[in-house]
Amino acid sequence: MSKLTHVREDGSAHMVDVTGKNETSRTAVAEGFVKMRGDVVKQLFSAGLPKGDALPVARIAGIMGAKKTPDIIPLCHPLPLGKITVDFFELADGVRIEASVKTRGVTGVEMEALTAVSTAALTVYDMIKAVDKMAVIDGIRVLSKTGGKSGNWSVQ
């Protein structure tokens, strides 16, 4: 009936069997944006927000989010994450968040990178909402991945 990997013939969802796959080094990089007023960008990057220094809090939240991915995305496999980085880049109208996740395993870490970016973006939003209620989270996507059977790819 279906050739979707997470759907059985009867239409029910299941966790894909990855036990026969080869273990390889795998990485994924994702990005996302939080758009806000320019004055709020300055407060964010100068640690001048009423709630405090948001970027270190958002970095830890992103790392924690990546580690918790299989707890919040039902069919994701738990993976031994070897490295997680979350970085912030100042823009005139917001912040670009980039997360990189690395593992040595049998399945990729795209979902972990996306979850890291999403969690960091939600944390930035939480920290700035008192001064910019119109802030917007936008553009969350995977930029690149390496390793595994499907090989390497990048949006660049």
From TrEMBL:
Domain (Molybdopterin cofactor biosynthesis C (MoaC)) spans 15-148
Please verify whether the record's keywords include Protein transport: no
* Residue positions binding substrate: L75, C76, H77, M111, E112
Give me any GO biological process, just one: Mo-molybdopterin cofactor biosynthetic process
**Pfam families assigned:** MoaC (PF01967)
Sorted alphabetically, which InterPro entries does this protein's record hold? MoaC, MoaC_bact/euk, MoaC_sf, MoCo_biosynth_MoaA/MoaC, Mopterin_CF_biosynth-C_dom
Q: What keywords would UniProt list here?
A: Lyase, Molybdenum cofactor biosynthesis
One term of GO molecular function? cyclic pyranopterin monophosphate synthase activity
The main enzyme category here is lyase
Could you describe the subunit structure of this protein? Homohexamer; trimer of dimers.
NCBIfam families per the UniProt record, alphabetical:
moaC, PRK09364.1
Q: Which family does it belong to?
A: Belongs to the MoaC family.
Name the record gives this protein: Cyclic pyranopterin monophosphate synthase
Natural source organism:
Corynebacterium glutamicum
What does UniProt list as this organism's lineage?
Bacteria, Bacillati, Actinomycetota, Actinomycetes, Mycobacteriales
